[in-house]
Amino acid sequence: MLRLPIPTCQRGILPYAGWPHRAFRDRRLWLGLWLSLFPLLAAAAPWRVVILPGADVAQPAAAQQIQALRTALKAQAPDGVEFYIDALDGLRFDAATLTPPFVDLLKNKYAQKPVDLVIGMADFSLEFTQRYHDEIWPGVPVLITSVDSARLQQLPQPTKFAYLPLDADIDGTLALIATLQPQLRRLIVVTGDGAADRDWSRRVSESLGRQPRPRWQLDVWSGLPLRELLARVASLDGSAAVLYTTMYRDTEGGTYFPYEVVAPLSRASRAPVYGWYETYLRLGIAAGSVIDFTEVGQRAADLGAQIIRKAQPAEGASLPPGPALCAVDIGRLDALGLSAAALPNGCLRVNEPPSLWREHRGIVLAGTATLLLQALTIGLLLWQRERRRRAEEQVEHDRMELTRAARIASIGELSASIAHEVSQPLGAIANNADAAGFMLDGEPLDREELRQVLGDVRRDALRASQIIQRQRAMLNKHVVEFQPLALDAVLDEAMVLMRPEARRRGCELLCDFGAGAATAMADRVQMQQVLLNLVLNAMDAVTSRQPEKRRVVVATRAVEGWYVLTVTDHGYGIAADVLPYIFDAFVTTKSQGTGIGLSIVRGIVHSHRGQVTVATTGQRGTTFDVRLPVTDTATSLPIPAQGPHEEGVLTSS
Fold first, then answer.
1. Pairing of the two strands 273-274 and 240-244
2. Is residue 407 part of a domain?
3. Alpha-carbon distance 144 to 390, whole Å?
4. Exposed/middle/buried for 91, CB within 10 Å: 0-12, 13-18, 19+?
5. For an engineered disulfide with 197, which of 192, 270, 487, 590 has Cβ 3.0 to 4.6 Å away?
């Protein structure tokens, strides 16, 4: 009881002595304050809720539902909840003899304890509260839950009660059996001998009777003692299925909680066991369209909170049953050899064996996507590499054809001098042949002189043949072959073709091959083509000079690991604006030039791991410098070169 302070006298002096009527007015103030605080003090009291389970609260379904109800209701109560649980357990005890003393106990228990809500669970709680509600909890709202909706229609329903029924989805469980066992031939319904047990057996038979045609052989095993039941299910195989309802009593008078039968039944049976309680999944059944008792408890708490807050009266505050939940035990299905592939989407899967896919699906998907992207990237790179290889092969083929065309063009420029060179040995052959004929006609025959004449014929024929062979070697299609070559000797062979052209043009061609036996890994024909292009360009550069200044110098030397070839002319040099691009394709300083000769020279030199540079000095001419790495003839490997590696233009003045 709240005690309010009352003003008192101290040392014989009345308080508020200077104001005679203040004390009276203060008493009225305290009374008004008390009256205003009374609703607040009443509102601060916790909710008081009585829970009447229809069976022992140790059953998993009851325990799970009560726990969910308590948790959800506490979360909504502003000042907490006081719960009172009184188990009726009318399924296992004779209600007729035990009910009167039980009612007296509850009347005495709640006579001085105001209650805000009574929540009854299962059939017996509905019957009990309907009969004794006004005696024990007069005026207190009642919420009935966990009564099957079909069963609820058969029982008297007080209109002032609120109802939250549940539905056992028998049809859904039968459909799940057909999905998991399409070849099923026999369905066995296992139930007890109590009144509730027999009611479940009847309802299963009715559900099967609604099927369009009989699909399975139906056997009902009702009230078998547990030992006999286990022996029977042990003889089953995968062509059968067991549908377990409840088993409170057997025909020998034994009593059970239904959940106590599930575990031994599932262990003994070689056929899958099905049911419609979610709590049975933890005890061994394979699957079912189940009632989620946690969800039932939460919905009951939500409805109960609205009733206590008077958001709506208990009368007419009923809710429809919640949806059933498809649930399967994956581990049990695997053990029985059943596939879960045909299960509907959204089906709850429990007891799944650990697997990378099930436990780390996101990581697996991300890793798979990464691998696919990497594979795609690698595939694209390989495709690009193949295209590049083919393009390079095509470019190399085109370059070889262009190089051969350049050789043909160069040989064409030398055709007049080559014809002159060939005509000389041919003329000598003809003259010597005539002389030999005269000698054979004359008397006496000088055999020694005839032998000399025939030797001259042979020598001149060989000379003409060598000229033709060199020309054919330059004109034929050629497969590049790198091998150690003494380049001085190779280049000297090419000079044989150049000297007649130099004489025809009135150009002085000077050679200074000073590299000696220096060897480089090179292709014979391509190196001769480099020399041919450079010397022809040099002779073109001095054509317009006075005869005494028409000079081209070809020199070689070995310098610090390099084989160096220089071709110098005494022409007018290369213009400064053209010099940086002189090795580019189609860049030329000649009116009739194609602009591919020096580009080919650079390509050949680069393929030989060499460098080519040009230096021009205006009126004093131009020098092309070709460098190739010298090769150790003992190992046929290039010797690391020293010196500058820059390519292109060196100087211009």
1. parallel
2. no
3. 83
4. buried
5. 192
Does residue 297 lie within any of the structural domains? no
Residues 497 and 540 grouped into a single domain: yes
Burial track 422-436 (b if 16+ CB lie within 10 A, e otherwise): beebeebbeebeebb
Single out the residue in 131, 164, 197 at which a domain terminates: 164
The verdict on 153 and 257 lying in the same domain is no
| Residues spanned by the domain of 554 | 480-653
What's CA 36's distance to the chain center, in Å?
A: 67
Mean residue pLDDT across the chain: 80
Dist. CA 329–CA 286, nearest whole Å: 5
* Number of separate domains in the chain: 3
Q: Give mean pLDDT, residues 266-287.
A: 92
Q: d(Cα 317, Cα 320) in Å, to the nearest integer? A: 10
Q: Is the pLDDT of residue 10 over 60?
A: no
Rounded distance between C-alpha atoms, residue 86 and residue 125, angstroms: 10
Q: Name residues whose C-beta falls within 8 Å of residue 617's C-beta, 6 or more positions apart in sequence.
A: 573, 623, 651, 653
In angstroms, the CA 48 to CA 114 distance is 7
Same domain, 274 and 252: yes
Q: How far is CA 78 from CA 45, 46, 47, 242, 309, in A?
A: 9, 8, 9, 48, 11
Domain boundary among 145, 164, 183: 164
Cis? peptide before 323, omega within 30° of 0: no
490 and 631 belong to one structural domain:
yes
DSSP per position, 533-594: HHHHHHHHHHTTS-GGG-EEEEEEEEETTEEEEEEEE-S----TTTGGGTTSTT--SSTT--
Tokens standing for residue 597: 């000769």
Residue identified by tokens 């948790």 is: 71
The rounded distance, in Å, linking the Cα atoms of 182 and 242 is 15
**Residue 266's pLDDT is what?**
93
Taking the C-alpha atoms of residue 209 and residue 230, their distance in angstroms, rounded to an integer, is 27
Collapse the DSSP code of 442 into the 3-class scheme (helix H, G, I; strand E, B; otherwise coil) and give the result.
coil
Domain shared by 178 and 134, yes or no: no
Which token pair is 469?
């062979």
- 102 pLDDT higher than 70: yes
- Say if residue 448's pLDDT is above 70: yes
Q: What is the pLDDT of residues 129-149, one digit of tens each?
A: 888 999 999 999 999 998 888
Specify if 96 maps to a domain.
Answer: yes
State the alpha helices, DSSP H only, in 342-446: 356-359, 361-413, 415-441
pLDDT of residue 289: 93
Task: Tell me the pLDDT tens digit for each residue of 308-359.
Answer: 998 888 887 888 888 899 999 998 998 898 988 888 888 988 888 777 766 7
**Which residue, 624, 630, 621, 616, is CA-closest to 647?**
624
How far, in Å, CA of 126 to CA of 318, rounded? 14
CATH of the domain at 69: 3.40.50.2000
**pLDDT tens per residue across span 411-433:** 565 555 566 556 556 766 766 67
Residues 588-634: tens digit of each pLDDT? 776 666 667 788 888 889 888 999 999 987 667 899 999 999 986 54
Asked, for residue 77, whether it belongs to a domain, the answer is yes
